[in-house]
Automatic annotation (TrEMBL), chain A:
InterPro entries: ABC_transporter_permease (IPR051393), MetI-like (IPR000515), MetI-like_sf (IPR035906)
Domain ABC transmembrane type-1 stretches: 69-283
Localization per record: Cell membrane
Organism: Porcincola intestinalis
GO cellular component: plasma membrane
Protein name: Sugar ABC transporter permease
GO biological process: transmembrane transport
Tree of life domain: Bacteria
UniProt family annotation: Belongs to the binding-protein-dependent transport system permease family.
Transmembrane residue ranges: 12-31, 73-97, 109-127, 155-180, 201-223, 263-282
Topology with respect to the bilayer: Multi-pass membrane protein
The UniProt record lists the keyword Cell membrane: yes
Record's keyword terms, sorted: Cell membrane, Membrane, Transmembrane, Transmembrane helix, Transport
Keyword Oxidoreductase listed: no
Length: 295, 297
C-alpha cells in the first residue's frame, strides 16, 4: 500500500517539469490575457484602468474589425481549399491511383514543411513580383499581367495563402495519407472491379472511412493556418493595404505591439480563442465520439 | 488544370493510356495523374532551386537572367556580402544555441512526462493529459502579451535565453513519446520495479533503447521548428547581433523585392541549409513521426 502511494507520488514528480512550464508560460498567460481584456492599459502605465466589457464593445464597433473578420473568413476558405481539399485528393491519388514514384512524391511534397516561412515569404515576393519576377516574365508573352497582389484587396489574401500552403501542404498530406491507409484496399479493389468511377470511390468510400483524420486536418488547417499565415503577413504586408490582409491573429499582434493597446489586443485574442474552442468542441463531437471511426 | 476524378474523363483527355500495370494500383487515369503530380512537385520545389541559383549569380545577372536556373557567371559575391554586411557567424550561433537548448529541454521534459503518463497510476492523470493536449488549440496571441511582460521583467528581452525559456515543454513531444512508450510491455517495467531498480535507471537502460527512433525524430522536429521560428523571437530580440536567421532574413524583404537580390537569396539558402541536410538524412523518420500526429490515441 505504501509502495502504491510512493508510485503515484513519483508519477506526479515526473510530470512536474512539463507541468510547471505549461503553468507559467501557457495557463497563467491565458488567464492573464482574459484579465487584461477588461482593462485599459498600454504596457507602460503603472495603473491599469478597469473598463469592463468596453474593450470588446470598442473592438466590435470598429469598422476595421468587420473587415478583418471578413478577411479571416476568406483566409479560412482559401486555406481549406488549398490545404485540406487538395491534399485530401492528392493523398487519395497517391494511395489508390498511382503506384510508382509514391515515395518520391511524398518526400518531395513534404520537403517545404521543414523550411522557414520567412524563407518562403522572401522567395515568393521575388517569384510573384508582378514586374520583374519569373512568373510575370513567363506570362507576359501570353498577354497575362500579374496583379500587384501585395497592394490589391483580395489578391493579397490569395497570395499570402499560397505562400503558407507551400509550407503546410506536405504536413497535411502526410497526416491524411496515414488516415487513408486505414481504408481497406480490398474494398477499393472490389469497387474498381465493379467499375465504380474514381470520383465515387473517393466521396462515397474513402472520405467517410477516413473521416476522423479528415475532420482533424480540417480543424488544424483553420487553427494552425490562421497562425501560420501571420508570418507572411508580418514580413510582407504588415496587414496592409488598409487592413486588407489582416486577420484575427494579426489584429491582436498589431493592437498589442504597434498600437500598445493591450486591452483591445487581449479582447481580440480571447475572441480568437473562443473560435478555436468551438472548433475543438466540433472535434470532440465528431471525432472522439466517432461518426465513422476508422480504427 | 482541371482535375478529372473519374477514369472516363481522363481517357477522353489523353486519348491513350500509356502508363499502366507494373505497380500502379489503378491503371486508368494514372498517367494523367502522374503528369499532374510531377508538375505540382516541380512547382513546389522551384522556389528552392530559384534561391540556390540566384544566390550564385552576380547582381546584374540575377536581375537580367532571372529565368535561368544555371548561373552564367557563377560567383560567391552574394555569400561574401552576407559575411561582410551581417554578423553572420554570431546570428547562426544564436539560432543554433536556441534550437539546441530548446530541443534538449523539450525532449527531456517530454520523456519524463510520457513515462509518467504510461507507467504510473495516479488520480487526475486523464485530466492532466487532456489539459496538456488542449494547449495545441491555444493561439499564440493569447500567451504573447503576458509572456512578453514576464520575459521583460526577468531582464531577458533582447537575449537569446529569453527566446528559449518559455519553450521548455511541448505537448507534441509528450504525445509522440507517449505513443512510442505505449508499445512497451508493462510487465517488463513492473519486473524491473520489483527488483527495486530506480525509475531514472529504468528510463535510461530499458526505455531509452526501445524508443530511441521516436526520441531522435521528435528531437529533430523540435530542432527544425525552433530553427525556423519567427513569431516569438521577433517580439523578444531587438538588436542585430542577437538575431536568429529568420529575423536576419526578414531585413531583406519588402513588398517590391529589394536591392540586394543575390544577398537575400544567399541568406535564404543559408537559413534553409541545416533543416534541408537534416531532412535528407532523416526523412524516413521525420515523415513517419509526422504521420503519427494525426493518429488519435
Amino acid at each position: 500500500m505504501a509502495d502504491q502511494k510512493k508510485q503515484s507520488v513519483l508519477g506526479y514528480v515526473f510530470l512536474i517539469p512539463s507541468l510547471a512550464a505549461f503553468c507559467v508560460f501557457m495557463f497563467y498567460p491565458l488567464f492573464y490575457t482574459v484579465y487584461l481584456s477588461f482593462f485599459d492599459w498600454n504596457m507602460i502605465q503603472p495603473q491599469k484602468k478597469f473598463v469592463g466589457f468596453q474593450n470588446y464593445v470598442i473592438l466590435l464597433r470598429a469598422p476595421n474589425t468587420w473587415k478583418i473578420l471578413g478577411n479571416t473568413f476568406w483566409y479560412i476558405v482559401i486555406l481549406l481549399i488549398l490545404n485540406w481539399a487538395l491534399p485530401y485528393l492528392v493523398s487519395f491519388v497517391l494511395s489508390f491511383v498511382v503506384g510508382r514514384m509514391r515515395g518520391f512524391y511524398k518526400s518531395a511534397l513534404f520537403l517545404p514543411s521543414i523550411i522557414s516561412l520567412v524563407v518562403g515569404s522572401i522567395l515568393y515576393t521575388w517569384i510573384l513580383n508582378p514586374v520583374s519576377g519569373p512568373v510575370a516574365i513567363l506570362l507576359k508573352p501570353l498577354g497575362i499581367r500579374l496583379p500587384f497582389w501585395t497592394k490589391t484587396d483580395g489578391w493579397v489574401i490569395a497570395g499570402l495563402c499560397i505562400i503558407t500552403t507551400w509550407k503546410t501542404f506536405g504536413y497535411n498530406l502526410i497526416v491524411l495519407l496515414a488516415g487513408i491507409s486505414g481504408v481497406s484496399p480490398e474494398v477499393i479493389e472490389a469497387a474498381r472491379l465493379d467499375n465504380v468511377p474514381l470520383r465515387r470511390i473517393f466521396f462515397d468510400i474513402v472520405v467517410p472511412m477516413s473521416s476522423a483524420t479528415g475532420i482533424y486536418v480540417f480543424i488544424i488547417t483553420i487553427v494552425q493556418g490562421l497562425q501560420y499565415v501571420f508570418t507572411p503577413i508580418k514580413v510582407i504586408t504588415q496587414g496592409g493595404p488598409n487592413y486588407a490582409s489582416s486577420n484575427l491573429i494579426y489584429m491582436s499582434y498589431h493592437n498589442a505591439f504597434t498600437l500598445f493597446k493591450t486591452g483591445t489586443a487581449s479582447a481580440a485574442s480571447v475572441l480568437t480563442m473562443l473560435l478555436f474552442v468551438i472548433l475543438l468542441l466540433l472535434e470532440f463531437r465528431f471525432v472522439e465520439r466517432g461518426v465513422y471511426y476508422e480504427n | 488544370m482541371k482535375l478529372p476524378l473519374d477514369a472516363g474523363g481522363m481517357t477522353d483527355r489523353d486519348g491513350n493510356s500509356k502508363t499502366q500495370g507494373t505497380g500502379e494500383t489503378g491503371s486508368a487515369g494514372a498517367a494523367g495523374w502522374h503528369v499532374f503530380l510531377i508538375l505540382y512537385t516541380c512547382l513546389i520545389l522551384f522556389p528552392i532551386a530559384f534561391a540556390v541559383s540566384n544566390s550564385f549569380k552576380t547582381s546584374s545577372d540575377a536581375y537580367n537572367t532571372i529565368l535561368e536556373l544555371i548561373p552564367r557567371r557563377p560567383t560567391l559575391d552574394g555569400y561574401r556580402q552576407v559575411f561582410a554586411k551581417l554578423p553572420f557567424v554570431r546570428i547562426a550561433l544564436n539560432t543554433f544555441l536556441i534550437a539546441a537548448s530548446v530541443t534538449a529541454c523539450k525532449t527531456l521534459t517530454s520523456l519524463l512526462a510520457a513515462y509518467s503518463f504510461v507507467f504510473f497510476q495516479y488520480r487526475g492523470k486523464k485530466v492532466l493529459y487532456f489539459l496538456m493536449l488542449i494547449t495545441m488549440f491555444v493561439p499564440f496571441t493569447v500567451t504573447m502579451i503576458p509572456n512578453y511582460l514576464l520575459i521583460t521583467q526577468m531582464g531577458l528581452r533582447d537575449n537569446i535565453w529569453g527566446v528559449a525559456l518559455p519553450q521548455m515543454a511541448d505537448v507534441l513531444g509528450i504525445f509522440l513519446l507517449r505513443q512510442a512508450m505505449r508499445g512497451i510491455p508493462k510487465s517488463l517495467i513492473e519486473a524491473a520495479k520489483l527488483d527495486n531498480i530506480p525509475d531514472l535507471k529504468i528510463m535510461k537502460d530499458i526505455i531509452m533503447p526501445l524508443v530511441r527512433p521516436a526520441v531522435i525524430s521528435t528531437g529533430i522536429i523540435f530542432f527544425i521548428n525552433s530553427w525556423n521560428e519567427y513569431v516569438w523571437p521577433v517580439l523578444i530580440l531587438k538588436s542585430v547581433e542577437h538575431y536568429t536567421l529568420p529575423l536576419a532574413l526578414q531585413m531583406y524583404i519588402s513588398a517590391e523585392g529589394g536591392t540586394d537580390f543575390p544577398l537575400a537569396m544567399a541568406v535564404s539558402v543559408l537559413t534553409m541549409l541545416i533543416p534541408l541536410v537534416l531532412y535528407l538524412i532523416f526523412q524516413k523518420y521525420i515523415i513517419s513521426i509526422f504521420a503519427m500526429t494525426g493518429v488519435k490515441g
